[in-house]
Description:
Layout: H1 10-31, H2 43-179, H3 182-198
Amino acid sequence: MALAPRGWTLSRYKTVGLAVVLTLLTAAVAFAADGQSEEGQSVIVNFAWRLLNIAIFVGVLYKLLGKKIKAFFIDRSENIRTELENLETRKTEAEQQLAEVKQRIANLDTEREAILEESKIQAAQLKAAILAEAHKQAEQIREQALRAAENEGKAAMEQLRATLADEIVAAAEALLQSKLDDAQHEKLINNSLTKVVLN
């Protein structure tokens, strides 16, 4: 709370001081209306001397400290005014922040729903990507198994052919040896040599 109203000047301070002095004098006259003091002086004169002493004292104080007191009250008024302005600014900022918080709270359900919906979409995309990768890997494994089975089948078939060829040759040789006599055997060798030489 300000000690002096805003915008007061030196003349206004003097006017208020004069009004206080006149009020005290009026009270002194009313108080002294009953007569004399014990020493024979009138109470009014005694009171007037006291008032004069007080006035001189106040005057000396004013001359010595008047500018400092005035500056103190002016500075105090300015400080209070500045603080009130700062408080008003802070109040406005706080009201804006409160409005923003209320708006965020109001939008919280909408934001939560949006986040949940986005999370569901991301989960579905992740699931689809994982399933696609799993299908791709399963297809690769199946193709590798088929290739391995084909290779093993070919190798087994080649081994079987080689074995059968060996057995057929051995069987044919045994059959031929049992049916051919020496003359036929010699004739067969000569025919083979003739074919080799001609080719």
